Amino acid sequence: MLYMVIESFLPGKEKLIYQRLEEKGRLMPDGVRYINSWVERDLSKCYQVMECDSEENLLAWMRNWDDLMKFEIIPVLTSEEAKQKVMAS
């Protein structure tokens, strides 16, 4: 499944986020795959698309970062998947 993950950086933690990323990588468990991400210009939020087999694996990944940011998880479909779903009904 695909998920849009909205990461809200905790105030003053931006540098620590990028330091951890540089030192330890994304800290993703098996079964979680990073697709792409975009960061707001004020560096307060990151919008990230992730793919994973189970939401449990996604939650395990988030626990590696929850001291530096808060998360919102939105299950999403690709545009093509949405089209197929609509046309099949």
Indicate the CATH architecture: 2-Layer Sandwich
Identify the strand order in the major beta sheet.
Answer: 2-3-1-4
Largest sheet composition: 4 strands, antiparallel
Q: How far from one another are the termini?
A: 21 Å
CA-based gyration radius: 14 Å
Q: DSSP strand (E) fraction?
A: 35-45%
Could you tell me the number of beta strands?
4
What coarse outline follows from CA principal-axis ratios?
globular
CATH homologous superfamily classification: Dimeric alpha+beta barrel
How would you classify the helix and strand content by structural class?
alpha+beta
The H/E string reads EHEEHEH
Summed over residues and divided by their number, the pLDDT gives a mean of 96
Q: How many domains make up the coordinates?
A: 1
- CATH C-level name: Alpha Beta
| SS field, number of helical segments | 3
If you had to describe this structure to a student in words, what would you say it looks like?
The chain is an alpha+beta fold. It has a single domain (about 1-89), classed as Alpha-Beta Plaits (2-Layer Sandwich), CATH 3.30.70. The protein contains three helices and four strands; from the N terminus they run βαββαβα. Strands 2-3-1-4 form a four-stranded antiparallel beta sheet. The longest helix is centred in the N-terminal third of the chain and has 11 residues, at about 15-25. The two termini are about 20 Å apart.
Jot down its keywords:
single chain; 89 residues; alpha+beta; Alpha-Beta Plaits; four-stranded antiparallel β-sheet; 3 helices; 36% strand
Summarize the structure.
The chain has a single domain, classed as Dimeric alpha+beta barrel (Alpha-Beta Plaits), CATH 3.30.70. It is α+β, with helices and mostly antiparallel strands.
